[in-house]
Design a protein that fits this description.
50 residues, mainly beta, three-stranded antiparallel sheet, 1 helix, 3 strands, DUF4295 domain-containing protein, DUF4295
Length: 50
Amino acid sequence: MAKKSVASLQTGSKRLTKAIKMVKSPKSGAYTFVESVMSPEQVNDFLAKK
């Protein structure tokens, strides 16, 4: 049986996290999703940024 990793990715010795954020478009008002893979320390900065 295979294990499924949802939010954290592990490559070699580096530990990475995939963060997904919903952003509202100023032109149309529709929401889009912005995805980024980064180290766990940078996640809070990414989510706080507009």
